[in-house]
Design brief:
Blueprint lengths: L3 E6 L4 E9 L2 E8 L5 E6 L3 H18 L20 E3 L26 E14 L5 H12 L4 E2 L7 E14 L5 E14 L2 H11 L7 H5 E2 L3 E4 L2 E4 L1 E10 L2
Parallel strand pairs: 4-5
Antiparallel strand pairs: 1-2, 2-3, 3-4, 6-9, 6-13, 7-10, 8-9, 11-12
């Protein structure tokens, strides 16, 4: 299969997704448009299995709203800048059904069967010369206290989150640039260990570190006046704790 490149753009997102099959390996590169993004490689039992998986995930991305740019079969940046990580496992797919906002418990429920914790770091640059002062102040408030909710109602567990570090710094001497930075910890828990593990296997595709983006809503972007802006988001990893 030739390398295929797709993009997804809406009010809060501007992302690319690229896939390439070589023998028994499937490599996916993904991230914000204009960056090199991140890459992951998955090895299958045979070239036929790799090709079948690639066709399946391409169909899922198209269904989710990803499209090929006009005249583009590959991305402008043809090789990832990050080292690809190899993993083995079953095929996976994303879910995308919005759900009403949920509360943010300060700690996960007791007696859970499995806990999966993720940490993300985000950074956003705002040109204050193009933003009203009131809009900038509102953006800072949303940045410090985001309204994060469970996005996929099929998720078989509970989610809690916490902004562990947040800052808003102006630079340039004449209030020219506002830098917003924050770190968020997510905790996903369930009394049904097998159900949660299976959901992750079935929904999260190759980008295992992106679990928050499959479950949580309203954290990848922020409204600044009438404009929606995306954070540069780094997914810093996960850990499993089975009591």
């Amino acid at each position: 299969m030739a390398k295929q490149y797709f993009e997804f753009k809406d009010k809060t997102s501007s992302k690319f997704w690229e896939i390439y099959v070589k023998g028994k390996e499937v490599t996916v590169r993904y991230g914000r448009i204009g960056t090199d993004g991140q890459a992951a490689t998955k090895e299958f039992s045979s070239p036929a299995a790799a090709a079948a998986y690639a066709e399946k995930v391409v169909a899922e991305k198209v269904k989710k709203g990803y499209t090929k740019p006009s005249g583009a079969g590959t991305s402008a940046k043809s090789s990832p800048s990050l080292k690809a990580s190899k993993s083995k496992g079953s095929s996976k797919k994303p879910g995308a059904t919005p759900k009403a906002p949920s509360q943010n418990p300060k700690s996960p429920p007791s007696k859970v069967g499995i806990i999966v914790s993720h940490r993300i770091a985000q950074r956003l640059e705002i040109d204050l010369s193009e933003v009203a002062a009131d809009d900038a102040d509102s953006a800072i408030e949303l940045h410090n206290a985001p309204d994060i909710y469970v996005y996929d109602e099929s998720f078989p567990g509970e989610m809690s989150w916490k902004v562990v570090e947040s800052s808003a710094v102006e630079s340039g001497g004449k209030r020219e640039t506002l830098w917003l930075s924050r770190t968020i910890d997510f905790t996903f828990s369930s009394k049904r260990s097998r159900a949660l593990s299976n959901w992750i296997e079935q929904h999260v595709s190759l980008e295992d570190a992106l679990l928050p983006s499959y479950v949580a809503g309203d954290f990848e972007g922020i409204s600044v006046g009438e404009e929606s802006m995306d954070y540069d988001t780094q997914y810093l990893g996960e850990c499993y704790d089975v009591p």
